[in-house]
Amino acid sequence: MAKTYHLNPMGRFINRVMRTLIRLGIGPQQTYLLTVRGRKSGKPMSTPVSLVEDSGTRWIVAPYGNVNWVKNARAAGEVQLTRRGKTETVKILEVGASESAPVLKKYIQMEAITRPYFTATVESPVEEFAKEADQHPVFRVY
């Protein structure tokens, strides 16, 4: 059974450190700072995310499920991605299980820290990722 995500004080601290490092251009190449306006507050909210790139297409994965940034991104239909001091505003489209399953498989190969939140494993066939795709939203970046 997959672990449930809860942002605790240590997680908040790590996110704060990662936000600073990403803004400075330090950190893994696939890591960006995602900023989206709060759907209720209207205030910009930022969180580190890892993008999956495949055949020229970029994907944003929500490994921890339907968290606040996901709800805000759905409502906005666009997000800002920042890396090394450069910010781009991009349109996003949430995709279904058949399209997201191979992206999820690639994602957990890249991001080992998120594996406990998946039932499928690195060795699982793509079909296993499709079964849990509704628990890990995936957005295509335009």
Task: Describe the 3D structure.
- 32% of the residues lie in helices and 30% in strands.
- The model has no long low-confidence stretch (mean pLDDT 93).
- The radius of gyration is 14 Å and the shape is globular.
- The protein is an alpha+beta fold.
- It has a six-stranded antiparallel barrel with strand order 1-2-3-6-5-4.
Number of strands: 6
**Average pLDDT score:** 93
What form results from the Cα inertia axes? globular
**What's the main sheet like?**
6 strands, antiparallel, barrel
Structural class: alpha+beta
How are the strands of the largest sheet arranged? Answer: 1-2-3-6-5-4
Rg from alpha-carbon coordinates: 14 Å
* First-residue to last-residue Cα separation: 34 Å
The number of helical segments is 4
Which percent range fits the helix content?
25-40%
Uncertain runs with pLDDT below 50, 5 residues or more?
none
Secondary-structure map:
Blueprint: H1 9-24, E1 31-37, E2 44-54, E3 57-61, H2 68-76, E4 78-83, E5 86-94, H3 97-110, H4 126-131, E6 138-141
Question: Could you give a short description of this structure?
Answer:
The protein has 142 residues and is α+β, with helices and mostly antiparallel strands. It is built from 4 helices and 6 strands, in the order αβββαββααβ. It has a 6-stranded antiparallel barrel.
Defining traits:
142 residues; six-stranded antiparallel beta barrel; 4 helices; 6 strands
